[in-house]
Amino acid sequence: MVAMSGGVDSSVAAVMLHEQGYEVIGLTMKTWDYASSGGSSKETGCCSLDSINDARALAVSYGFPHYILDIRSEFGDFVIDNFVEEYLAGRTPNPCVLCNTHIKWEALLKRADKLDCEFIATGHYANIRQLTETGRHVISKGKDVHKDQSYVLWGVSQENLARTQFPLGSFTKAEIRQMAAEMGQLELANKSESYEICFVPDNDYRSFLRHRVEDIDERIGAGNFVLIDGTVVGKHQGYPYYTVGQRKGLGIALGRPVFVIRILPESNTVVLGEEHDLQRQEAYVKHVNLVKYAAIEQPLEAVTKIRYKDAGMNSTIVQEDGKMRVDFHHAVKGIAPGQSAVFYEGDDLLGGGFLM
Fold first, then answer.
1. Residue 158, in any domain of the structure
2. Is 285 helix (H, G, I), strand (E, B) or coil?
3. Which of 46, 96, 99, 117 is catalytic?
4. Which of 87-101, 107-121, 183-197 has the lowest mean pLDDT?
5. CA–CA distance, 86 with 91 (Å, rounded to integer)
6. What is the Cα–Cα distance from 314 to 193, expressed in whole angstroms?
7. Could you tell me the pLDDT band of residue 35, with boundaries at 50, 70 and 90?
8. Strands across the sheet containing 232-236
9. Is 198 part of the annotated catalytic residue set?
10. What share of the chain in percent tops pLDDT 70?
11. HSE of 72 in the Cβ direction (CA atoms, 13 Å)?
């Protein structure tokens, strides 16, 4: 069972497996309804009708079955509701991780079981192997350092990883585009990518929140911008519209660059400071899922990434009281509660969780 979004990556992954002799079944998941999201531009991305048709056309051309699975209800109830709740709690959500962990893998495997598929495969740029000494399934970084997607896979369970394949892990994006061209799929090879959250296609989460939360502006209203010492320096539009580390779009001029340092939802306050005020050397991580090891009983040296495009920072991680404490060897900037912290040992994914 191959998850096919209609894009070049999942399409080439499906064809690769088909040509390797696997009996392939393509599945495209409809995860959200564009009209209900409040988007104002043309429907685009992995859930658009065009993308679904592209996935189906490719499957037909190679002679393998293709199905569409409507999971809008599960997706909305879990991923979108969590997205809204996190912003209302003053945190910055990580919807792609939740979708992979709780929606896509579960939906794929449920349908795979019904159709007697032994494995599922996706177009993620990552690798997977099984350790002979422990039997655990380990995710590692993909060959293409610019496209590596292991960061968003830290929440996938061992049970689900045991049935997962990542055909693109040992290729670069350029090589995948070339393969698509050699397949005669020139339009697919040149298809542009979207880096937006799939259910916020205008890339404007503030408008999305206004659309999803009735009377949000009236209920929350304007609040105070304050400095770290408590000095009120201006008014903001409401704390859900700001994220830790934000500098642009604050609508305030203090004669020097200022950044969002903290968000205090209980008082509708946004704390501003200078860039050095964002620096921290310690973080706590909750809802930790370990991948390479079943447990980390002793302090362990690891590289910790606190955002997708982050290069990572040397750190020591310590598991305590159901959480992970991260002691960075040097101060890091912009630790945003709600985002993922992901731990690596070399190229191997140790695990991850959500920043507190």
1. no
2. strand
3. 99
4. 183-197
5. 5
6. 31
7. low
8. 232-236, 223-227, 269-273, 259-264
9. yes
10. 95
11. 12
The active-site residue out of 46, 96, 117, 198 is: 198
Question: Can you give the CATH number for the domain in which 266 is found?
Answer: 2.30.30.280
Q: Going by C-beta distance under 8 Å and a sequence separation of 6 or more, which residues neighbour residue 25?
A: 1, 2, 64, 65, 66, 67, 115, 117
Per the annotation, the verdict on 47 as an active-site residue is no
Paired tokens of 220: 């929350």
Q: How far is CA 55 from the centre of its chain?
A: 22
With tokens 């910055």, the residue in question is 92
Residues 6+ apart with CB under 8 A from 304: 283, 312, 313, 315, 317, 326, 328, 341, 342, 343, 344
Which CATH number does the domain housing residue 95 bear?
3.40.50.620
Total domains in the chain come to 3
Nearest to 169 by CA among 139, 194, 192, 190: 139
- Tracing tokens 């599922």 back to the chain, one arrives at 120
pLDDT tens, 293-316? 999 999 999 999 999 989 999 999
Given a contact cutoff of 8 angstroms between Cβ atoms, the answer to whether 94 and 67 are in contact is: no
Please state the φ and ψ torsions of residue 239, each to the nearest 5 degrees.
-60, -30
